[in-house]
Design brief:
Blueprint (H helix, E strand, L loop, with lengths): L1 H13 L3 H11 L3 H6 L19 H13 L2 E4 L2 E9 L2 E7 L13 H6 L10 H14 L2 H7 L3 H14 L3 H11 L8 H8 L11 H8 L2 E6 H13 L3 H10 E6 L6 H7 L32 H4 L3 H16 L23 H15 L12 E6 L6 E6 L5 E6 L4 E5 L11 H4 L9 H4 L9 E4 L6 E6 L5 E6 L3 E6 L4 E7 L5 E6 L5 E6 L3 E6 L7 E4 L5 E6 L5 E6 L3 E6 L5 E6 L5 E6 L5 E6 L3 E6 L4 E7 L5 E6 L5 E6 L3 E6 H5 L6 H6 L8 H4 E6 L7 E4 L5 E6 L4
Parallel strand pairs: 4-5, 6-32
Antiparallel strand pairs: 1-2, 2-3, 7-8, 8-9, 9-10, 11-12, 12-13, 13-14, 15-16, 16-17, 17-18, 19-20, 20-21, 21-22, 23-24, 24-25, 25-26, 27-28, 28-29, 29-30, 31-32
């Protein structure tokens, strides 16, 4: 934006920062003479007329306040954050490359809204809009679907412009006349919009501010765009053209216009579609190489077939995870890309157990569906709000609305705490069964209740080594509990608002949390401050998941998008749009290539992470999907919903022969097969229990959990 540039250059010159001024000038390809001529202040004097000349300060202050509204300006590879301390004085802080600038989540309200300063005649708004509507409805079929995407963002901006300029009756009649034309998936947003009828209402409304600050993205073919541009220029319809230029980001692609189905599949999020650029970055979606150690064979496993037993041991593991072979997965991140905790002896033992279990794993498929074991929480008057099950399926935890966390043992082995310090000092540390001796038999019970939160517990997660448990709550904290002593070790405070979800990394040590403050945070158990803050969502972060290689984190949000973040540098590397409601469940396929997402719209969408494309849509559920899980070898996807059903889908078939050529990636022409019914392998009803959690055991038995609701 030229005006902003001029103001920044002027500031640099006044502060005697000649070098920075030169660099910015070269970057912006602006010469001194060009700038001298730029008449920017209200009196018409050029801001950069002479080096020491004092420009009209009122105009300058106005400009600087606009500059501060533009949060960051990129200079070469570095970003400069512009923050204004007093009118007309602004401090420019240079930030080293690679470090993002965290922008406060409340933009400067007045700066944001001032963009709505009236330019047109309020009485003509309806005419402008209906003129455009008539033009689009009469255009050729191939362009109509693409241009229809304009209706919603234009409707919102024109309405807000009328409200901001206090033309309340015109705004009301504009809303009543045209809100029925909008797509059904915008109903919730329109409900919020209809409550904004006065300028004062706009000040604190987050949805409104998001809409104002983030440009709404439309993906349109070049032909359709030219058609629109020509129409608006011929009609001299400046009001609409100004909105298009100021508030919309039109991502133009060369090629055939997209069909209504292709567009409908991708739109629906709070800020339109993702720009194509957003999904171009390389993602290392492969799995890390497992450390090698021998699996000792048990006598019972051998059954006299020693020679056959050995390859049999290794084989199932190889198929299941793909990268267990000696070769490094070509798509895997470098082994040391992010520091991961060392394996302890107990972890190695657990891995060995895991491999033994895997050898007895059932190979699932359309012909061989898993058995499902459902854990129903009865009389859960405390209100069950979260569930997790340990990887070895030995413990189950429930988070409740009465702020308690309850841990049950699902095996005959009871839960025991470690003895007190005085008793521990009496134990012979050299004995073989020292780990057994430190446990206090008197504390053995099937259930332990953990007290500490002061609000409903919305997320729970066991650490992979089963020594720790995470819980996050409405009270804004994430707590780490010891499963040796059943006490709280740490309360992590970073979110100021409810925390909706938390999850441990598959390697332990790191964990992620996401909440109402619209950001996800990455933590390490031994740091009380977050290591990374992932900011970018326009509404609550409702669910969080680690990629199996722990280098990436997926977050689902109430802004109806899913984002994939790089743990190494905090960058957002994928934005997936297509859901029509807030997202409540995420699951990565075991091979790390695909992501499944479920939302309040009752659809499960499947994404190819490498290409950044939607590759499938599973329809069948009639209510919010709260649980998604792939079987251990990735052949089956299970989904659990508020409609009281668990459904099983054929994941192998869903992901085979995908069309992921470069053309599709470049233009977003995705052709989703209408094959939900062929992929659905089974639907299992509960009597009256919404499904909150799903888990495949190491042998591929499916465990489901939920609280019985007596409607």
């Amino acid at each position: 934006d030229r005006q902003t540039l001029v103001a920044v250059l002027q500031f640099l010159r006044r502060s005697n920062l000649r070098e920075s001024e030169e660099i910015l000038r070269r970057e912006a390809r602006l010469l001194g003479d060009d700038l001298g001529a730029a008449a920017l202040s209200p009196t018409g004097t050029g801001l950069l007329g002479t080096a020491g000349g004092d420009a009209d300060s009122a105009g300058e202050n106005a400009l600087l306040s606009r500059v501060t509204a533009a949060a960051t300006i990129a200079i070469g590879g570095n970003a400069a954050a512009v923050a204004s301390s007093s009118p007309g004085v602004s401090a420019v802080a240079a930030v080293p490359p690679g470090k993002g600038v965290v922008v406060e989540d409340q933009p400067d309200v007045s700066a944001v809204l001032s963009a709505y300063n009236q330019q047109g005649d309020p009485t003509l708004y309806e005419e402008y809009y209906s003129g455009l509507k008539h033009f689009i409805e009469c255009s050729l079929d191939c362009h109509r679907a693409e241009l229809s995407q304009l209706f919603y963002p234009l409707f919102v901006h024109m309405y807000l412009e009328l409200v901001y300029n206090q033309h309340e009756s015109e705004a009301k009649s504009f809303f009543e006349r045209f809100h029925g034309d909008q797509e059904c998936y915008y109903q919730d947003d329109l409900r919020v919009l209809s409550s904004l009828t006065k300028k004062e209402h706009m000040k604190g409304n987050e949805t409104m501010l998001d809409f104002r600050t983030s440009k709404f993205v439309l993906r349109i073919s070049r032909d359709s765009y030219q058609l629109l541009k020509r129409h608006l220029q011929e009609k001299q319809n400046n009001q609409i053209w100004n909105i298009v230029q100021e508030h919309l980001y039109i991502d133009i692609f060369d090629g055939m216009p997209r069909s209504k189905q292709q567009i409908d599949a991708m739109v629906g999020s709070l800020a339109g579609e993702a720009k194509r650029e957003a999904n171009k970055a390389k993602v290392f979606f492969g799995l890390l190489k497992e450390p090698e150690f021998d699996v000792p064979l048990d006598d019972e496993d051998e059954e006299g077939e020693n020679e056959e037993g050995k390859p049999k041991k290794k084989k199932p593991k190889k198929d299941s995870v793909g990268s267990k072979s000696k070769k490094q997965d070509p798509n895997a991140p470098p082994q040391n890309r992010i520091p991961l905790p060392e394996l302890k002896d107990s972890d190695k033992l657990d891995k060995v157990m895991n491999m033994k279990e895997a050898a007895r794993r059932v190979r699932l498929g359309p012909e061989c569906l898993p058995s499902i074991c459902f854990y129903t929480f009865l009389n859960a008057y405390q209100g069950l709000t979260a569930v997790d099950i340990t990887d070895d399926s030995s413990m189950i935890v429930g988070g409740f609305a009465d702020s308690t966390v309850r841990v049950w043992s699902v095996t005959p082995k009871k839960l025991r705490s470690v003895k007190t310090a005085a008793d521990l000092s009496l134990i012979d540390k050299e004995s073989d069964d020292v780990l057994e001796r430190i446990m206090d038999e008197k504390t053995a019970s099937e259930l332990k209740i953990l007290y500490g939160h002061s609000g409903p517990v919305y997320g729970t997660s066991f650490s992979p080594d089963r020594n720790y448990l995470l819980s996050c709550s409405e009270d804004g904290t994430v707590r780490l509990w010891s499963l040796q002593t059943f006490t709280c070790l740490v309360g992590y405070k970073g979110h100021n608002y409810p925390v909706w979800d938390t999850q441990f990394s598959p390697y332990g040590y790191y964990f992620v949390s996401g909440g109402h403050d619209r950001v996800a945070r990455l933590w390490a158990t031994d740091h009380y401050q977050p290591l990374r803050i992932f900011a970018g969502h326009l509404a609550d972060v409702t669910c969080t998941r680690f990629h199996p290689n722990s280098n990436y984190i997926a977050t689902g949000s109430a802004d109806r998008t899913v984002r994939l973040w790089d743990v190494l540098n905090g960058n957002c590397v994928r934005i997936f749009t297509g859901h029509k409601g807030p997202i409540h469940s995420l699951a990565f396929s075991p091979n790390g290539r695909f992501l499944a997402t479920g939302a309040t719209d009752g659809r499960v969408l499947l994404w190819d992470i490498g290409h950044g494309l939607m590759v499938g849509e599973l329809k069948g559920h009639t209510d919010t999907i709260y649980a998604l899980r792939f079987s251990r070898d990735g052949e089956i996807l299970a989904s659990g919903s508020m409609d009281n059903t668990v459904r099983l889908w054929d994941a192998v078939k869903a992901f085979e022969d995908l069309e992921t050529d470069d053309f599709t990636t470049a233009t977003g022409h995705i052709n989703l097969p209408e094959n939900s019914q062929d992929l659905l392998l089974g639907t299992y009803m509960t009597k009256s229990t919404p499904v909150v959690h799903l888990h495949f055991t190491r042998r591929n038995l499916l465990l489901a959990a939920g609280a019985y609701s007596s409607q």
